[in-house]
């Protein structure tokens, strides 16, 4: 009778690896399982322009572009890309790493020439996803992967804001979210947040007044208060009211945070909304782009005990929603021209068929082009949501 225990799976061996040793463990596993000759983990930087190799000493290897080249193609299209090498002969397989809709980077695996077939690529893609989950968990215990994501030092305000974000994407059967934040290394007051449940999605976009550390502290308090109220299970308007009270108690109306709160009912597509300030919301339905006009209510923290009211509108399968902060719709070029709704509509129309992540990035790219510099004078937050909806059961 054979009493030997089965060999541990690749996933369990990844889970058992020390947080800083995930790349070397992945290399050992793929050498055993697929004959891999080399394995490189590339993580996207905060501005989503570069893919940085993860090493024990960040920046010891040159980054790759996140928008072109074989690795960049795998990242933007979210499909495996095979690069044929000639000296020496080998296949370099670039596999996108995405965790629950949050695009993290690419796993590049060098294989002997002629060994790459569709079943193997599928197994490698599954391995890349498992590695992504472990990297997300390892972020709690090591700075290695956080350091690999940055091209330069973040300001303290930006450090606080990035730690506050839920991620840069989220995907479920009913919807896909892609989000972007600029200027990535000096952002101060802009934030997006979401929480998904069995039957609903809550999404917020917040623009804290001011710049730098003051704006970051304000936004951290606003988002913390909104999360605290949301987790207490109360309605959207009451969430806004409690956050408003928290900010007023701290600042006495001297500063405030503009916030758009949305709650999506997954069964029906009904959206409950509270517009507390400056973020704007657009809906693309088929070939029509319209701004969803909501009753403008006071920003959080401006006055004591502000009463907020919910509004509702609907989304249908195939709809796309885009929420933008004031740093997008209110920015001016060097000549004083407003980016405004017209330019925003042009970008949204041109990117109608691209994934939400790429649309959010394209809006920021258009904004930077309009402004004439990557050094934006105001934070810019963009959240793009594609609504698929939920099939209703027939009686």
Automatic annotation (TrEMBL):
UniProt cross-references to SUPFAM superfamilies, sorted A to Z: PP2C-like
Keyword Hydrolase: yes
Organism of derivation: Streptomyces cylindrosporus
Protein name: Serine/threonine-protein phosphatase
A Pfam family the protein falls into: SpoIIE
Transmembrane regions: none
Keywords from the UniProt entry: Hydrolase
Domain of life, per lineage: Bacteria
Organism taxonomic ancestry: Bacteria, Bacillati, Actinomycetota, Actinomycetes, Kitasatosporales
Every PPM-type phosphatase domain range: 172-387
PANTHER family, per the entry: STAGE II SPORULATION PROTEIN E, STAGE II SPORULATION PROTEIN E-RELATED
């Amino acid at each position: 009778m054979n009493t030997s225990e089965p060999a541990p799976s690749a996933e369990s061996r990844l889970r058992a690896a020390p947080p800083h040793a995930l790349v070397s463990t992945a290399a050992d596993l793929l050498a055993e399982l697929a004959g891999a000759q080399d394995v490189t983990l590339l993580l996207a930087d905060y501005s989503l322009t570069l893919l940085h190799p993860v090493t024990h000493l960040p920046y010891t290897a040159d980054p790759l572009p996140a928008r072109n080249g074989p690795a960049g193609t795998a990242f933007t299209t979210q499909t495996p890309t095979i690069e044929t090498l000639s000296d020496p002969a080998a296949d370099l397989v670039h596999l996108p790493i995405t965790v629950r809709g949050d695009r993290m980077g690419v796993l590049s695996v060098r294989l002997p020439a002629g060994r790459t077939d569709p079943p193997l690529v599928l197994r490698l893609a599954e391995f890349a996803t498992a590695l992504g989950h472990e990297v997300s968990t390892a972020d709690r215990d090591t700075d290695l992967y956080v350091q690999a994501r940055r091209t330069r030092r973040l300001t303290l305000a930006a450090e606080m804001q990035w730690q506050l974000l839920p991620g840069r994407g989220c995907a479920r059967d009913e919807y896909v979210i892609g989000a972007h934040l600029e200027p990535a290394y000096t952002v101060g007051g802009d934030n997006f947040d979401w929480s998904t449940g069995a039957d609903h999605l809550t999404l917020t976009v917040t623009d804290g007044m001011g710049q730098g550390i003051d704006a970051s502290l304000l936004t951290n308090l606003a988002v913390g208060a909104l999360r605290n109220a949301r987790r207490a299970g109360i309605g959207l308007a009451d969430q806004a009211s409690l956050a408003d009270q928290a900010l007023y108690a701290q600042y006495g109306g001297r500063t405030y945070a503009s916030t758009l709160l949305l709650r999506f009912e997954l069964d029906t597509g009904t959206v409950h909304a509270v517009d507390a300030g400056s973020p704007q919301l657009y809906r693309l339905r088929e070939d029509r782009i319209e701004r969803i006009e909501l009753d403008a209510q006071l920003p959080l923290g401006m006055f004591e005990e502000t009463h907020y009211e919910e509004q509702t509108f609907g989304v249908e399968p195939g709809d796309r929603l885009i929420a933008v902060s004031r740093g997008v719709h209110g920015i001016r070029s060097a000549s004083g021209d407003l980016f405004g709704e017209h330019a925003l509509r042009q970008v949204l129309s041109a990117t109608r068929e691209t994934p939400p992540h790429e649309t959010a990035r394209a809006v920021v790219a258009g904004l930077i082009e309009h402004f004439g510099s990557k050094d934006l004078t105001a934070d810019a937050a963009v959240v793009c949501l594609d609504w698929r909806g939920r099939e209703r059961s027939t009686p």
